[in-house]
Design goal:
About 75% of the residues lie in helices and about 0% in strands. The chain has about 160 residues and is mainly alpha-helical. Helix 1 runs antiparallel to helix 2 (about 35-65). Bound molecules: MU-OXO-diiron. MU-OXO-diiron (FEO) binds near residues 20, 50, 53, 94 and 130. MU-OXO-diiron binds next to helix 1, helix 2 and helix 3.
């Protein structure tokens, strides 16, 4: 059975994963609008992945016999100065999500809720992958640059990334 504290934290995470999905879908629209089809595709797929992150927690809460609650979802950012600014925003966002997950893991461990602790291990690994992915894109931007044909090449590279 989930403690009230853990239930609240997991429900907050459900809302945060929804927000991540909306943020990435909004970013996909921005990329498409700016003529960046590779990034638009990448974010559209990533938005779906975030929905699956949300659904997993939602189902876990329900499986414990508690009630999953969807709260109001904050409006995502809609404008970015350039592609580097956009991917810096995603990288910072993912670091914030990792911090949130780690906080819930800490609580589960302190409460000796090993079932929830075990469930959260998937998110610990996933966040490692998420941070790695966005950092690697920022590295590409740094190496190739966004001047001249750079923007076209970076966007093409990003479009070739396969989302698991
Ligand atoms: Fe649900 Fe991108 O972490």
């Amino acid at each position: 059975m989930l403690s009230e504290n853990l239930l609240n934290k997991l429900n907050t995470q459900v809302t945060l994963e929804f927000y991540s999905s909306n943020l990435y879908l909004q970013m996909s629209a921005w990329c498409d609008y700016k003529g960046l089809p590779g990034s638009a595709k990448f974010f559209k797929e990533h938005a779906k992945e975030e929905m699956s992150h949300m659904q997993k927690i939602f189902d876990y809460i329900q499986d414990t016999g508690a009630l999953a609650i969807i709260d109001a979802i904050e409006k995502p950012e809609i404008d970015f100065s350039d592609l580097k600014n956009l991917y810096t925003t995603t990288y910072n966002h993912e670091k914030m999500i990792t911090k949130q997950i780690n906080e819930i893991v800490d609580i589960a461990l302190n409460e000796k809720d090993y079932s929830t602790f075990n469930f959260l291990q998937w998110y610990v690994s996933e966040q490692h992958e998420e941070e790695k992915l966005f950092k690697s894109i920022l590295d590409k931007i740094e190496i190739i640059g966004l001047d001249g044909r750079g923007l076209f090449m970076v966007d093409k590279e990003i479009g070739n990334i396969v989302i698991r």
